[in-house]
Amino acid sequence: MSHCRYIMIILFMLLFIFPLDNFISANCFIDKQFHVQVIDDLPPDSSQLKVHCASKDNDLGDQFLSSTKKDFTWSFCEDFFNRTLYFCHFWWGTKESTFDVFNDPRNCIHDGPDVEGTTKCVWTVRSDGFYLGYYDNNGNFIDDLTYTWPS
Ligand SMILES: *[C@@H]1O[C@H](CO)[C@@H](O)[C@H](O)[C@H]1NC(C)=O
Fold first, then answer.
1. Which helix (DSSP H) or strand (DSSP E) does residue 6 occupy?
2. What share of the chain is helix, strand, coil (3-state, %, to 5)?
3. Where does the protein end up (predicted)?
4. d(CA 69, CA 80)
5. How far is the CA of 12 from the centre of ligand 1 (A)?
6. Given the DSSP bridges, would you call strands 120-126 and 33-40 parallel, antiparallel or unpaired?
């Protein structure tokens, strides 16, 4: 039996293992795990916020946030080639907006501030717009107005 045959078998097995790690959300096989949190910080007496987030192969469905359910979080493994992309559609009264909430393992989004080592992207929805927040290496939370509601 040649070494070549062993290598072929191992490569063949790896092809099966790699796609699987996307399904093991609690435990990423070799890739880093990320968390995205959406927080409703809109005035309590205003319209209910509806959020629908999805990636190419994971649809999180409609989420309704309010003063009693202020946030939701999901976790996923970045794929080896950094191709994971999640976008969300937000509806608040007559306003709505859609954008990528995660498309970059370094900054959450490509044009986000450079925060090395972050694994949690926090989107806080306020009446003036969407704040992207990170925990820095010291565990401090920093957030900034990233997108405004389209008028
Ligand atoms: C994915 O992103 C990380 C963090 O920015 C980087 O270190 C790594 O080299 C990237 N991998 C690929 C395959 O581009």
1. helix 3-20
2. 10, 45, 45
3. Secreted
4. 34
5. 24
6. parallel
Determine whether the shortest distance from the Cβ of 83 to ligand 1 is under 6 A.
no
What is the domain count for the chain? 1
- Residues 62-119 pLDDT 10s: 999 998 899 999 999 988 889 999 999 999 999 999 999 999 998 899 988 777 778 8
Q: Whose structure tokens read 């370094």?
A: 106
Report the SS3 class of residue 82.
coil
Q: How far apart are CA 28 and CA 119, in angstroms?
A: 13
Looking at residue 16, its pLDDT comes to 66
CA distance 119 to 33: 7
Q: Which domain holds residue 134?
A: 3-147
The pTM is what? 0.81
55 vs 2 pLDDT, higher one: 55
Contact 86, 136 (CB under 8 A): no
Positions of E strands within the chain: 33-40, 49-54, 59-65, 71-77, 86-92, 95-102, 120-126, 129-135, 141-147
Q: Which residue has the tokens 């969300």?
A: 88
Q: What is the pLDDT of residues 14-28, one digit of tens each?
A: 776 655 544 544 467
> Which residue puts its alpha carbon closest to atom 1 of ligand 1?
82
